[in-house]
Design goal:
59% helix; Recoverin, domain 1; two-stranded antiparallel sheet; 177 residues; mainly alpha; 8 helices
């Protein structure tokens, strides 16, 4: 279970998603993290949003996330919701491809992140809880990957490059499976 392949983080790490999603047209994600409105995401801005997400999920305020504190169905990002809506429309306009669409939907459902998979993926010490540090580690990694020049800021150009690289990686991964 620990080896579940990394997927784009859900809304729980929306701050790190902001780094990638902005280049896909989701400027709202960047605006939410870009507190000074300069179009550049700093590590501090991203970590502030991620901390707020953690705090919102940590219902009992004990500094760890457990299965019972996570939503029954993990939320999806705005861009994914738009893709799904577009696919539904396409499906409605192409009833002759119903079997193909059904197979793809099942495959997608299998890949959708569950609460248990979320915990398993980022629970570094295996205690079946996610500490604040464990929660923040992937956000830090994604920020570092996007910050190509290492200056502690992710510009629009760096976001575009990071998004392109992430999409290429995901495409390769899906071709192997």
């Amino acid at each position: 279970m620990k080896k579940i392949y990394q997927v784009m983080f859900l809304s729980s790490v929306a701050a790190s998603m902001s780094i990638y999603s902005a280049s896909a047209g989701d400027e709202k994600a960047v605006q939410g993290a870009d507190t000074n409105g300069d179009g550049v995401l700093t590590n501090a801005e991203v970590m502030t949003v991620a901390t707020a997400k953690f705090d919102a999920l940590d219902k009992n305020g004990d500094g760890t996330l457990t299965l019972s504190e996570l939503p029954k169905q993990m939320p999806m990002g705005e861009m994914r919701a738009k893709r799904i809506a577009k696919m539904k429309e396409h499906r409605a306009n192409n009833p002759e491809k119903a079997a193909e669409f059904k197979a793809r939907r099942e495959e997608s459902r299998m890949r959708r992140q569950s609460r248990m998979a979320f915990i398993a993926r980022i629970d570094a010490n295996g205690d079946e809880q996610v500490s604040r540090e464990e929660f923040m580690a992937p956000v830090e990694r994604r920020f570092a990957h996007a910050d190509a020049d290492g200056d502690g800021e992710v510009t629009a150009e760096e976001r575009k490059k990071a998004h392109k690289k992430m999409r290429k990686h995901r495409k390769k991964r899906h071709q192997k499976s």
